Amino acid sequence: MANRDKDKYVVIDKIADGLVTLLVGKEEKEVTIELKALPAEAKEGDWFTMDGKGSFSRADDITSERSDLTKNKLDKLRGRQKKDS
Predict the structure, then answer these.
(1) Residue 39 belongs to what domain range?
(2) Residue 18 DSSP label
C-alpha cells in the first residue's frame, strides 16, 4: 500500500453485537458504526474505501495484499519458534 493514499481507506478491526469498529486513515482512528452500514459479506480484516457520503466500497486488492503480508509475518514467526525449540 506504499503508493496508495491510506487516508481513503478503512479496515474492519472487529465486529461484535451488530457493531463494527473501523480503523480509519493513516492515524488509524477508531470509529464504531452499525454492521448494517457495510456490505453483508464484510468481515474482520476487510478493507474498504469510504466516500464523503458515508458509502463503503470493497477494496479487495488491499484486503488480499494485507492478508498476504500478515500470513508471511506469521510464517516467519512460526519458523523462528521451531528453531528455538
Answers:
(1) 6-84
(2) T
